[in-house]
Amino acid sequence: MIIISFGIKIDMDACTGCGTCFEVCPSECFNEPTDGKVNVNEDNREECVGCRACETQCPEEAIQILED
Ligand code: SF4
Ligand code: SF4
Question: Which helix (H) or strand (E) holds 8?
């Protein structure tokens, strides 16, 4: 069995805290942005399914989903 896991990389300089990734992620991998920045929800980091909704919809292209 092949298990693929994903890494979530956020460019914190580019992030404006718009909340799009927080809203579109089906696995609650992000916390609600505060002070204009978003952070990964560490409790759910491993739940990322690699759908790339966050990566494709971030208006600042600040997210990269990496295959580990
Ligand atoms: S969608 Fe992009 S700019 Fe918006 S909060 Fe997420 S990482 Fe930041
Ligand atoms: S790739 Fe999908 S599951 Fe993973 S963090 Fe982005 S929106 Fe969430």
Answer: strand 6-10
The one-digit pLDDT tens for each residue of the chain (68 residues) are: 778 899 999 999 999 999 999 999 999 999 999 999 999 999 999 999 999 999 999 999 999 999 97
Please give the distance, rounded to the nearest whole angstrom, from the Cα atom of residue 1 to the centre of ligand 2: 22
Domains in the chain: ranges and CATH:
6-62 (3.30.70.20)
Measured in degrees and rounded to the nearest 5, phi and psi for residue 49 equal -100, 5
> Which residues, judged by CB distance below 6 Å to any ligand atom, belong to the binding site of ligand 2?
6, 8, 24-27, 29, 48-54, 65
pTM for the full predicted model: 0.94
